[in-house]
Amino acid sequence: MEQVLPPDAAAVLGQARRVVVFTGAGISAESGVPTFRDDLTGLWARFDALQLATPEAFHADPDLVWGWYEWRRARVRRAEPNPGHLATAAIEALLPGTVVITQNVDDLHERAGSRSPVHLHGSLFAPRCVAEAAHPAPLPETVAKPARPATLPVTIASADHPAALPETVDGETADPGEGGRVPPPRCTRCGALVRPGVVWFGEALPEAALTTAVEAAAGCDVLLTVGTSGVVYPAAEIPRIAARSGATVIQVNPEPTPLDRVCAINLRGTAAQVLPALVA
Ligand code: BV8
């Protein structure tokens, strides 16, 4: 059935009652945070991000992968939220009940004022012990000191594994630059390696986050999909679930994506240009 395009995205949003904003790496691009499809630079230019963001890569070369995440954390710490993030927070303020769902592992939505974005792929700022699942019981008395002072940029407490990780040393990110391999710190509880608190390819998404996202997509009347190529699953199902549930899906992306065909409105522009116009 030929989609009858609603008159205007801002009007559609203005009449919406339950909105979901679904974001990908593109919303952070204008903050200077590279997307997954940008060419990697420096040491990592030899790799595809899809290769580095895997448990196998970390197992094979923890220093390389940890260094990549330190470099990314440093990039995010130096970045500022852009008008796309700020407009997303403005939509939440205008339409209470708006759910922000992000594939991104940066904290730019939070720093723009979004209250509790649903992180489907975890966070750069929540490293955790690789053996976390192995510590359901009270922790062993012996506490292995990290092999060397942690260079971790943030307080890395993990709810399931409290006080298991080295404290912040200097609060600053140890930016390894373009070519830095950085040995990951050790868990102060069990001595195992600390890993990035993100969901790697081949790993399951956090169940609660995915359930919240699916329920929000199935129950919204408008879903804004912003800055995602729509090819990473199961996250890429979220806009499709909204469309199947009868929501109006509006895409903001300068490029065509596989999501074009499920979108009632395709706004060919960048997040920082288009989103503020939607809430003006
Ligand atoms: C899993 C964290 C199973 C790490 C990331 C079908 C069903 C289920 C799984 C699969 C499936 N088919 C294939 C799979 C496997 C795989 C997958 O989807 N592979 C892809 C490559 C085909 N999925 C998985 O492995 C998932 N896990 O399935 O586990 C399982 C189940 C039970 C038990 C055990 C196992 C896990 C996927 C999560 C991977 N982790 N991130 C990290 O960040 O380091 S995904 C990673 O890609 C990022 O999170 C990123 O956000 C995400 C998606 O990319 P995008 O956000 O879309 O970014 P991208 O660069 O691609 O595109 C940017 C877009 O922005 C572009 O369109 C561009 O035009 C646009 N843009 C650029 N500038 C702007 C802009 N838009 C607006 N404004 C701008 N200025």
| Helix count from the secondary structure assignment | 10
Largest sheet: 6 strands, parallel
Tell me the strand order in the biggest sheet: 3-2-1-6-7-8
Named CATH topology of the largest domain:
Rossmann fold
Q: What is the CATH architecture descriptor of the largest domain?
A: 3-Layer(aba) Sandwich
> Tally of extended strands?
8
In CATH's first tier, which class of the largest domain applies?
Answer: Alpha Beta
Q: Encode the helix/strand succession as letters.
A: HEHHHHHEHEEEHEHEEH
- Overall tally of domains: 2
Structural class: alpha/beta
Radius of gyration: 20 Å
Helix content: 25-40%
- Distance from N terminus to C terminus (CA atoms, Å) equals 32 Å
Averaged pLDDT, please? Answer: 84
Shape: globular
The fraction of residues in strands falls at 5-15%
Protein architecture, described:
Residues 1-280 form the Deacetylase sirtuin-type domain. The active site is at residue 121. Belongs to the sirtuin family. Class III subfamily. Keywords: Cytoplasm, Metal-binding, NAD, Transferase, Zinc. With 280 residues, the chain is of the alpha/beta class. It folds into two domains: 1-33 and 81-124 and 205-280, Rossmann fold, CATH 3.40.50; 34-78 and 127-195, 2-Layer Sandwich (SIR2/SIRT2 'Small Domain'). The protein is built from ten helices and eight strands. The protein has helices at 9-15, 26-29, 49-52, 55-60, 62-78, 83-94, 108-112, 207-219, 237-244, 271-278, and strands at 19-23, 99-102, 118-119, 128-129, 194-195, 222-226, 248-252, 265-267. A six-stranded parallel β-sheet has the order 3-2-1-6-7-8, with helices on both faces. Strands 4-5 form a two-stranded antiparallel sheet. Strand 2, helix 7 and strand 3 (118-119) form a beta-alpha-beta unit. Helix 6 packs parallel to helix 10 (271-278) and helix 8 (207-219) packs parallel to helix 9 (237-244). The longest helix is centred in the first third of the chain and has 17 residues, at 62-78. The protein is globular, with a radius of gyration of 20 Å. The two termini are 32 Å apart. It binds ligand BV8. The site of ligand BV8 has 35 residues, from helix 2. Residues 24-26, 29-30, 35-37, 50, 53, 103-105, 121, 198-204, 227-229, 231-234, 252-255, 257, 270-271 line the site of ligand BV8.
